[in-house]
Fold:
Amino acid sequence: MIRLRGQLICMTPADRATVLAHVQDHIALTRAEPGCLSFEITETEDPFTFEVMEAFRDRMSFDAHQARTRDSAWFAATRHILRDFRLEEVGD
Structure:
């Protein structure tokens, strides 16, 4: 299993508005991907920081997610927003 945890950190109100405008579609599309076990992007107490937690069945599923995301409206809109993620591979 591949697990990613971290934060999406907005620097401006416009960045926050961009995340909020695109996040629900991004979540729905990701959860529909083969191999997606869980995917959450949630607001934190800091209105400019979003918590990101995701899990994929295996490396192939995670890599497919990364490839799809790079070609998505989500990434086009949020590519400039700071991401602080940690990736972990969890064995069986």
Summary: The helical segments are 13-31, 59-70, 73-78. The chain has one domain: 2-86. The domain at 2-86 is CATH 3.30.70.100 (Alpha-Beta Plaits).
